[in-house]
Amino acid sequence: MRTKVILITGANGEVGHGLIEQLSSMKNMPAVLVLDIRGLEPAMKSKVGEVLVGDILDTRLLGTLISEYEIDTIYHLAALLSTHSEFRPEAAHRVNVQGTVNLLEVAIEQARISGRPVKFIFPSSVAAYGMPDLETKKKAPPVSEDQFTMPTTMYGCNKLYCEHLGRYYTHYYRQLADAPQRSGIDFRSLRFPGLISATTLPTGGTSDYGPEMLHAAAKGAPYACFVRPDTEIPFMAMPDAIRALLELAAAPRETLSRTVYNVTSFSLPAGEIADLVRAAFPSAEITFDPHPQRQGIVDTWPAQMDDSAARRDWGWQPHYDLQRAFHEYLIPTIRQRYA
Ligand code: AKB
After folding, report:
1. Does ligand 1 come within 6 angstroms of the Cβ of 207?
2. Cβ(190)–Cβ(263) under 8 Å?
3. Would you say residue 145 lies in a domain?
4. Cα dist. 68→6, 62, 213, 259 in Å?
5. Please, is 25 exposed, middle or buried when counting C-beta atoms within 10 Å of its C-beta (0-12, 13-18, 19+)?
6. Which residues are identified as catalytic?
7. 71 domain residue, yes or no
8. Can you name the residues that pair with 288 across neighbouring β-strands?
């Protein structure tokens, strides 16, 4: 018999570690199957059922999953983030788009065999937005899911396209076939703001100047922030991001009016992040040395996102506002990490 599992791709990233920690503490959940091109950190291995070291572009490997596992839910986290994707846009397309199509095909085959829908949970990003200019960004009220979706990065284009792919596979798959059949995919996506983790290191995202500043201060290292002090985007503490993924996955399908939801917690300028970091680490050496191109990317991301649809449909509510995020989670946990 096939083992019933929850599949997590890209599990060795920041969100993956948080998700594994949370899932491993929950009762009556299927075993966690991890697929990551780098495997999984040793400390995490005891918290999952099995670790597959492999590439989401390896369709032969993906084909074997179906014969060995009954996949109940897929958390598809594997991606090249915005900065890396700008240096290797064609590789980003392959990983971020073709990789996602490959996993959608696994989900279709899985649903066909089991006769039950497969939940496909997909983290999208504030990078899916593209504000036309700084004036519009400053004047705009919190941006809803369907406004200003004109991304200027390959990563943002990839995320936005995969949002639409998921909506197509869920509602319109092979609609002209002789006997139209539902794909069996229950695609659900969260458009995340910049995520800040205290327990894992940032991995080069364009929104990572927040966590990079914090970790550098805690290590006693100088940090030159690559955006201006007035640069404002939305952020969220990692525990809220993990809980949002799990709550969306658990929401009854009939309560969901859309396949993609904004979730957010707090927005603040980079200069105010520096003030909070200096208050916690008085010897912090933080300077601002804007990188024109990276600054240009962050300037296209909205200052605030409107997450009212998530609050209305499935009761989303952040637990970590700005104060709690910094004073109860980030600063004490990061301080302890480098003590
Ligand atoms: C990145 O900065 O690339 C990511 C994102 C905004 O999705 N953290």
Report:
1. yes
2. yes
3. yes
4. 13, 10, 44, 29
5. exposed
6. 155
7. no
8. 225
Q: Which range of residues forms the domain containing residue 250?
A: 79-193+237-265+305-320
Looking from the CA of residue 195, the nearest atom of ligand 1 is 8
Separation of CA 10 and ligand 1 centre (Å): 15
By three-state DSSP, how is residue 116 classified?
coil
Residue 56 falls inside a structural domain: no
State the closest ligand 1 atom to the C-alpha of 208, by its place in the atom list counted from 1: 2
Distance 155 CA to ligand 1 centre (A): 8
Would you give the end-to-end CA distance of the chain in angstroms? 48
User: 10 Å Cβ neighbour count for 140?
Assistant: 17
Give the closest residue to 85 by CA, choosing from 209, 214, 204. 204
pTM for this one? 0.96
- Using CA atoms, how far residue 234 sits from 12, 116, 312, in Å, is 24, 37, 20
In single-letter form, the type of residue at position 263 comes to: V
**Amino acid 6: pLDDT:** 97
Strand spans (E) along 193-292: 194-196, 223-225, 232-237, 260-262, 266-269, 286-288
* Distance from Cα 234 to the centre of ligand 1, integer Å: 11
The tally of domains found in the chain comes to 1
CATH assignment of the domain containing 123: 3.40.50.720
State the pLDDT at residue 181: 81
Pairwise CA distance, residues 266 & 10, whole Å: 26
Atom 2, ligand 1: residue with shortest CA distance: 205
**From the first residue on, what is the mean pLDDT of each consecutive set of 10 residues in the chain (339 residues)?**
93 94 92 96 94 97 93 96 95 98 97 95 98 98 98 98 97 88 94 94 91 96 98 98 98 98 98 98 98 97 98 98 97 93
Read off the amino acid at residue 177. Answer: A
Confirm whether 286 is domain-assigned: no
Strands (E), the chain: 3-9, 31-36, 50-53, 69-76, 118-125, 185-192, 194-196, 223-225, 232-237, 260-262, 266-269, 286-288
Q: What is the pLDDT of residue 179?
A: 79
